[in-house]
Amino acid sequence: MELFNFTKSVTVIFSRFLKVRQLELDFAADASPADVAAQLLLTNKALFQELHAERAVAKYRSFIFFVPGREIPKDFMPPADLAPLENELNEWYEQHKRGRSARVFWRQKDTEFWFHVRHAEPIKREGCVGMKDNRSGSMIYRPERHDLLVYDAKVGEIRVHADCKAEPEMFRKVFGTHLFGDPNFFSPGLEKYTLAPLKTKARAALAFDGIEGLISITLKEVEWFRGLGKLWEREVHKAEDLFSVFEERKFQIHESFDIRHAKFSVMFTDAKIPRTVTIRPSNYLYVGRDDDAIPIGKWLTARGFIVKDIPDEDDVSSMDNS
Question: Which of 84, 197, 244, 320 is the most buried (most CB within 10 A)?
Answer without folding.
Answer: 197
